[in-house]
Design brief:
The chain is of the alpha/beta class. The protein contains 8 helices and 11 strands. The protein has a single domain (2-186, 217-252), classed as Survival protein SurE-like phosphatase/nucleotidase (Stationary-phase Survival Protein Sure Homolog, Chain: A, 3-Layer(aba) Sandwich), CATH 3.40.1210. A hairpin with an 8-residue loop joins strand 3 (54-57) and strand 4 (66-70). Helix 1 runs parallel beside helix 5 (139-152) and helix 2 (74-84) runs parallel beside helix 4 (111-121). It starts with a strand and ends with a helix. The structure holds manganese (II) ion (MN). Manganese (II) ion binds at residues 8-9, 40, 98-100, 112. Residues 8-9, 40, 98-100, 112 line the site of manganese (II) ion.
């Protein structure tokens, strides 16, 4: 397949380089357009008040591939990459492999998921891939899984009907994975608090420090990953609350 690869951890991050390498070794043509630095939690932001710098670089893991580092956000990288840096329309866009899970409400903050959303909005099938990192950082588990997914499901992925899939991989070696579950988004949340510190000049500053308070409901991405399964959540983007819409209609028309 002809694949455009991006991420939010930056073009030099392990996750994207390991995934690019395995895809290229398996015969895929890969173009990388990714941020020149870490942009985690950039959400779906785009750059409009300053220029974007794009520079071709060499990556050992992606020899003979077009690798472009861009001074923008993950969404910028998809937009600019598709317009200026692909020879022909890619079959698929992949964002990742992110260093950290993107479960539940994380998808709203995530640069990884937002890059995939951008691709989907532009008419492509897109995968957001994240490793629920603990200590080991088994990016290869994720990379091998994605490579297999492409091999076994080429017909589905190349279908006219475009899909947006949020994929989370447990951070364990491949043979410890307990299966794949198609899930819904859970209610993974953080108990945010700001640590107040003092800089060397005596000025106060604040640093966000979150504590995870995931709720492990059956059928959710949060639960599947906790159960050592690969979680695949198909996403759609219509945020309309149809129940409230019906109620409001009744109420307002009175
Ligand atoms: Mn990230």
């Amino acid at each position: 397949m002809n694949i455009l690869l991006t991420n939010d951890d930056g073009i030099y991050a392990d996750g994207i380089r390991i995934l690019a390498n395995i895809l290229i070794e398996n015969g895929h043509k890969v173009t990388i357009t990714a941020p020149d630095r870490e942009r985690s939690a950039a959400g779906h932001s785009i750059t409009i008040n300053e220029p974007l710098r794009a520079k071709k670089i060499g990556l050992d893991e992606a020899p003979n591939s077009n690798c472009i580092k861009i001074s923008g956000t993950p969404a910028d990288c998809v937009k600019l990459g598709l317009e200026k840096f692909v020879d022909k329309k890619p079959d698929l866009i992949i964002s990742g492999i992110n260093n950290g899970a993107n479960l539940g409400y994380d998808v709203l903050y995530s640069g990884t998921v937002s890059a995939a959303i951008e691709a989907w909005m532009l008419g492509y099938t897109a995968l957001a891939v994240s490793l629920a990192v603990r200590e080991e950082k088994n990016f290869k588990t994720g990379a091998f899984y994605i490579n297999n997914l492409l091999k076994k499901n080429e017909n589905i992925l190349l279908n006219e009907e475009k899909m947006l899939l949020n994929i989370n991989i447990p951070d364990i070696v491949e043979d410890k994975i307990k299966g794949v579950e198609i899930t819904k988004l859970g209610t993974g949340q953080y108990e945010d608090h700001f640590e107040k510190r003092v800089d060397p000049m005596g000025n106060d500053y604040y640093w966000m420090a979150g504590k995870n308070k995931d709720i492990y409901i059956e059928g959710t991405d949060v639960r599947a990953v906790a159960d050592k399964k690969i979680s695949i959540t198909p996403l759609s983007l219509n945020l309309t609350d149809f129940t409230q819409k019906r109620k409001l209609n009744k109420f307002l028309n009175k």
